[in-house]
Design a protein that fits this description.
This protein is mostly helical. It has 20 helices and 4 strands. Helices cover about 45% and strands about 5% of the residues. The longest helix is centred in the middle third of the chain and has 26 residues. The chain is globular, with a radius of gyration of 23 Å. The structure holds flavin-adenine dinucleotide. Flavin-adenine dinucleotide binds next to α10, α12, α15 and α17.
């Protein structure tokens, strides 16, 4: 039987795998991992991310060994490395799961062209999203473009069935006898401990536990910073130790329980919306890869965001004097994850209170986040900064003081992550407080007046938008 080369990257599992299902149709699978400069650079950005990746790769190799095969590891630029490997193995097909970040997409497009020139088959396979971009794009009046607005996308997404690629009939892995380099380890990356069990079985356990109880309270958890009951699946989804398809199917299955209360059903629906939002940003990047580095809204491409600010370091260090913002940054430093609602508040503070470019924020968080989802990072940061897919007429500027009063009224979240406040603060500060714990060695008072900063930003924003010519206006909303 012919063999086919399968290149793993951010799809580190054997279960419910769209790429492997396609590969299985072409022959016995030779599994490979290429640590190319683009993948290396992304993974190396954060030591926790690198550790997650290294563990997940190890688990993948073990799963392959249990099937009589193993990973062939090579290091080097993607195109020549794959071409050499494909030549060595004399395969007629090379398959991988598509990437959704601009740099990897460019590499993969070059590679595809070079392989096709040599008569090697390279079908495009979408594994990361639950619903492939082409499927939702086909529902558009102008197919082939994808969606630029979330609401109509979600309607189409909800109407689509999620395919399962569990246990394809013919899937077999080759007993390979060609040279392999060592699995990635501390010689490739700076590593540190992660709490997560970075394996497919760890992901499956996490999903099962989440769906049993926490998912039924997701509607609350996703808003309340101190509530830890969101899924915490982002790293697993980003490295493919679980398929988004599996998560969606299992969630829908959970929603079939006839004994759920209406609010529990609403929570599951809200969770599915988050997964749909993930697919939305993946398809946005697939059709508009330039949005990785520039605003989706053409009128905002020239907006003069600052590249720095006298309080930028304080924002990075979690020392702005706004507890929600600071606790979020410190949670990120301590764990490699930040609560979803706090992400919006901390990002809004950077973009509007400090008027600093969203790209500075993406880069800063990339130094700590475990998950590696550039398309989701850019999509969400642009959304918050008011330059992306959000169609609100004005940017939504979050008020970090009101946010604390409403969502962390007892200061539980703030006290968990801000050591200086752990003992002293009974309640989240409602205005600029003058307590002994705020001072030289304690927690700082707010570094700026939020209301004033927000107004000043809106003035600049209005002046800029009013000066923009109609030709700069955003294109179709859909
Ligand atoms: C400014 C900002 C930056 C962000 N940067 C990233 C990032 O770099 N990487 C990343 O994976 N997510 C990012 N998000 C989205 C979201 O905050 C995280 O996915 C979520 O906090 C991860 O926690 P969880 O796994 O418990 O998510 P849950 O709330 O349990 O959601 C389940 C999954 O749905 C997806 N999801 C949830 N919310 C969103 C969303 N707003 N957009 C797209 N997908 C979503 C994620 O894959 C998540 O793991 C960002 C959000 C904001 C506001």
């Amino acid at each position: 039987m012919a063999s086919v080369l399968f290149r793993f990257a951010r799809d580190l599992r054997l279960e419910d795998h769209a790429g492997l299902a396609v590969a299985a149709r072409h022959g016995v699978i030779v599994p490979a991992l290429i640590i190319d400069p683009v993948l290396h650079a992304r993974v190396a950005m954060s030591p926790r991310r690198a550790s997650f990746f290294v563990h997940a790769v190890r688990a993948l190799d073990e799963a392959l060994r249990a099937q009589g095969s193993h990973l062939i590891v090579r290091r080097g630029p993607l195109r020549p490395t794959i071409l050499a490997l494909a030549g060595e193995l004399d395969v007629r097909a090379v398959i991988w799961s598509a990437s959704y970040d601009a740099a990897a997409m460019r590499e993969e497009s070059d590679l595809r062209a070079a392989l096709e020139e040599r008569g090697v088959i390279t079908p495009i396979v979408h594994d990361a999203p639950a619903i492939p971009p082409e499927e939702t794009a086909a529902a558009k009046l102008a197919p082939g473009e994808g969606y630029r607005a979330l609401a109509p996308y979600i309607d189409v997404w909800r109407s689509r069935e999620v395919t399962s690629h569990e246990a394809p009939l013919l899937m077999r892995f080759a007993e390979v006898n060609i040279e392999s380099e060592p699995l990635p380890d501390e010689n490739d990356f700076a590593l540190t401990d992660v709490d997560d069990d970075a394996t497919p079985s760890g992901a499956a356990r996490k999903l099962k536990t989440f769906l049993r109880q926490d998912a039924l309270q997701y509607d609350v958890a996703v808003n309340v910073p101190a509530d830890v009951r969101t899924s915490h699946l982002s790293a697993h989804l980003s490295f493919g130790t679980i398929a988004a398809r599996t998560v969606v199917r299992e969630t829908k299955h959970r929603a079939d329980d006839p004994f759920l209360l209406a609010e529990e059903r609403a929570s599951l629906r809200r969770f599915l919306r988050s997964l749909a939002q993930r697919d939305f940003f993946l398809q946005l990047s697939w059709y508009q890869p330039q949005t990785q580095s520039e605003p989706l809204q053409s009128k905002m491409r020239q907006f003069p965001f600052r590249t720095t600010h006298e309080h930028l370091e304080a924002w990075k260090e979690g020392k702005t004097g706004f507890p929600l913002v600071d606790a979020g940054m410190r949670q990120l430093h301590a764990t490699g994850w930040m609560h979803p609602h706090v992400r919006s508040i901390a990002a809004s503070f950077l973009c509007f209170d400090l008027e600093v470019d969203w790209r500075v924020g993406v880069e800063e968080w990339d130094r700590y986040l475990i998950e590696d989802e550039p398309a989701l990072a850019a999509g969400n940061w642009q959304w918050v900064a008011g330059v992306g897919a959000d169609l609100a007429a004005y940017p939504r500027i979050y008020n970090p003081v009101k946010g604390a009063r409403r969502f962390d009224p007892e200061g539980v979240y703030a006290r968990t992550w801000i050591a200086e406040l752990a003992q002293g603060m009974a309640r989240a500060p409602q205005s600029q407080p003058a307590l002994p714990l705020f001072g030289k060695n304690g927690y700082p008072p707010p570094l700026l007046d939020h209301e004033q900063a927000a107004r000043s930003f809106l003035e600049r924003y209005s002046a800029f938008v009013n000066a923009a010519t109609p030709a700069d206006a955003p294109r179709s909303n859909r």
